[in-house]
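Example (one chain per record):
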Amino acid sequence: MTQVDLNAFLNDQADDGVKDSEGDFTISHTNARRKLAKFALPRKHAWVSKLVQASVAWDVRNLHMAQNKTETQFFLEPQSVGSLPTETEIVNTLLSGKVVAETALEHFCVALRASVEQAGLSFILAINDGDVKPQPVYAGEYYGSVSESERLDAHYNRGKGITLTLRHAPAVGADTPISHLLGSYSYGVPILEELRDYAYTSPVPLRCSGLRLDGFLNCRAFLHNAVPLLTTGVRNLEKSPGLMRLPTSFEERQFSYLTHANRARRPYGGSRDFDGVYLLSTKLSADGIKRKARRSTMNWVKDGVVVESHALEVVTESLSISIYADATGLRSDLTGFQLVEDDVRLAREGELLQEVGRDLNRWRTRLDDFFRPDQDESSYLDLKHDQDAAFKARVSKLLGGGGLGVLLSLTNPVLGVGATLFTLFQNYKDVGRSSAEEEFRRAKKDSKETLENEIRHVSLNLVEVGTRKLDSLSLKPPMKESLAGEIPEPSDASAMEIFLAEGMEDPVALAALLAQKMESQQDEPLWNLHLARVYRRSDDLRASLFYNRYLHLKPDKEVYLELAELYEEQEKGSLAVLVRDRAAKLAD
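Predicted structure:
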């Protein structure tokens, strides 16, 4: 395969309308740009999260990352080379213009398109299967302008797997700020921030120059704004998909107020199998001072990325609880970052909130453990960490106080010397004295009652909110008996038509039921067709996607004509013409 300049190819395709790739009709590049703009990813660098979702769906061994001032490089290290896509598959998906991301390949290609068309970056891609020398696929201004020999440089190919290199520094122009020219601004930092803020739930290890970015204790909000107390979860949720795929570092752990940052990352040997997880933290430090009230959050995770978060109706004085639910199988918008508020999601959230509220109560019997002295507090690494931090703090104060003393000495030597001596006394009065035990006793005395009351308050509120959500389901029309009964054979056209017509009184439940059938019977393409018809009747944009999936597996004249009618309803005349032309060719 020769080098592929996607910029040139896509521009050539823009005037040709629809590209027919492997029997799957897709939108033109021009329409893809329009749709990508309309359903843009929620953040400029959200394409990074899409890249992580692809890695999780492919179940790669590691996602390595390296950065310099101008480039960010990702290397997807596979479990086995055969599990990754080929250059042809990636190019065909990119050129198809799809902006719906449900499979690993679609997540990956949406990430590539968004990095260029939404973030304005330039990328070069090398897929190495170990047999054939990879030829780069590239797009964007920078990599389109370099020579062919430069694109073949070994720097862009790290070995067996997928190497994706992005030029994140824009070209220097007349409007480039001076700070950017002097190197005081880093275009690569937002990419790291996207990973830390949204991809820390990834079950695939994320490494940047050896530094781990995955894991709940690497979440910036959880790590820097609170003291961790508990990481655990709940099991046997009937309305959730099953065991969540969690970061390799996640396990049930109960920390104390005095748990050292180094200690928190070490294995505790706790359980790792949960259907939903939650993290308890506090704004109370070891001195027992109460902080500003804060709200807890509900977070939805899909393919290792937090796709949506919202505040819970639980206001606390000192505690914070962060709950993580599995969003697998839930409906979303085209970007995949906005979940649809339907009964399936409501039931899953209500059940999880109830169970977390009940489970939280068991920790009230173990309050003393939240105040235990950390046995590793005297370890060499921890002591060194504390000594370094104390030294930096003292130096900062000495520079400030000493500087003031010198200035005062110029006008009043006696006052200046006094100020200097007072600064030295304040900074070194506690040197050699351990205050860990004092902090421990004070925290336990002043905070134990507060912690117990807060846990009781959070527990009751979560159960109440969860019950209210589940009760709201009973206010909706009950599911039709036909949905609760036996589903007809997909090949029985008349029976399925009656079944679908009756089930449209609750289209969300009907679509969920058919999606389950499609997942459990993947060798039966008719479930794709029936699901497409349900989406069409409910004006869901995913209708054409499932029509195309069915036609890809089983070309059928009548279904092509049905898809053409859908395109006409959506005012996509050019697509309808091409689909009718394909139907005519099948008839011949």
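Caption: The first helix runs from residue 6 to 13.
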